[in-house]
Amino acid sequence: MRAEIVVLPGDGIGPEVTAAAVSVLESVGRRYGHTFAFTHRLIGGAAIDAEGAPLSDATLDACRKADAILLGAVGGPKWSDGKIRPEQGLLKLRKALGLYANLRPVKTHPVALTASPIKSHLLTGVDMIVVRELTGGVYFGEKTRTDTTASDLCEYSVAEIERVVRRACQLARGRRKYVVSVDKANVLETSRLWRQVASRVAAEEFPDVRLEHQLVDSMAMHLIARPREYDVIVTENMFGDILTDEASMLAGSMGLLPSASLGEGTSGLYEPIHGSAPDIAGRGIANPCGTILSAAMLLRHSLGLEQEARCVEKAVAQAIDDGCLTADLAPQGAALDTLAMAKAVLQRLE
Ligand code: ATP
Ligand code: MG
């Protein structure tokens, strides 16, 4: 097949980790006879510096036309005090493309377990995916502020809940057919609607999928106490924001975890969950695995290339199992740099 992929390296370690992921995609393309055409564009601070805005119309247009978008990270101290913020570019892109479902798989690799602050016997075999609603909730509700009060409105429509729950149930079908919907239905009206809609969608459209509800506070506890039990977790925007950062600690390093943001069509935005890591930027030591695994998600969700996606995931797991580790995971002195890690993955692609 032929696919157009827009690459947005962004800021900090973004260019380093996206270069590694592009080399993996190119290799997979060659191996399986696909032509991937890459177009590089600026986003975030890099775009503010060069184009005066964190996401130009031309870049947005290119993203709209592409089959998929691979992103590094945006932001950094250089722009944190400015009037225009790099993060606005990413928010604008998500909004313009209608990307409402943020998928974050968390899988533990045996070698990485020692890097997690959580006891390793709890972590063996963790394999879950959190689906976070990305366009609604309190982050986007009306905001008011007076001298003595402030408020953020939390709003959800039936349609917004339906589509993200549906996406979670579809994912579960290809996995262990188990979805936990997280809310705070004992105190929030939006959560009561969420729970009602989730139950209906699951019962009417996915009778083969087991749906359970859990309050977000108890979910935060269970995520650490018994992470192995979870398959798919679906939740609203802010709960998802918090729970996905918590879940990332299970894997041992932020540098390992990928994400996908999906909308109605097949296109999507793929990026590692970590930020631009200004403290290590430019040194060539960042862990590229989160971005390489995001490229695997791109193959799966936007291009429909499941076998190719698994091939990349297997190569990453194999490299880590073989002890190929970047500084965030390796004991002192034994670390690979970004290029060497990418090479270790490339060598293991079947
Ligand atoms: P943002 O606000 O952009 O989300 P953040 O404050 O969450 O950023 P990150 O940039 O994600 O922070 O970095 C957090 C810590 O994790 C930093 O010390 C960084 O060096 C480390 N880190 C993040 N990504 C990687 C990676 N790919 N490889 C190695 N270390 C990483
Ligand atoms: Mg962060």
Describe this structure in words.
With 350 residues, this protein is α/β, with parallel strands linked by helices. 41% of the residues lie in helices and 19% in strands. It contains 12 helices and 12 strands. The protein has helices at 14-32, 45-51, 57-65, 87-97, 120-123, 158-173, 189-205, 216-225, 237-248, 289-301, 306-321, 338-347; strands spanning 2-10, 35-40, 68-73, 101-107, 127-133, 143-145, 150-152, 178-183, 210-215, 232-235, 258-262, 268-272. The strands form 2 sheets. Strands 2-1-3-12-11-4-5-10-8-9 form a 10-stranded mixed sheet, sandwiched between helices. Helix 7 (189-205) links the parallel strand 8 and strand 9 (210-215). Helix 6 (158-173) crosses helix 7 (189-205) and helix 11 (306-321) packs across helix 12. The longest helix is centred in the first third of the chain and has 19 residues, at 14-32. The mean pLDDT is 96. The structure holds adenosine-5'-triphosphate and magnesium ion. Adenosine-5'-triphosphate (ATP) binds next to loops.
Give a short summary of the structure:
With 350 residues, this protein is α/β, with parallel strands linked by helices.
Range of helix content: 40-55%
| Radius of gyration, CA atoms, in whole angstroms | 20 Å
Question: Spatial order of the strands in the main sheet?
Answer: 2-1-3-12-11-4-5-10-8-9
Separation, N- and C-terminal Cα atoms? 19 Å
Query: Helices and strands: which structural class?
Result: alpha/beta
Say how many strands there are.
Answer: 12
SSE pattern: EHEHHEHEHEEEHEHEHEHEEHHH
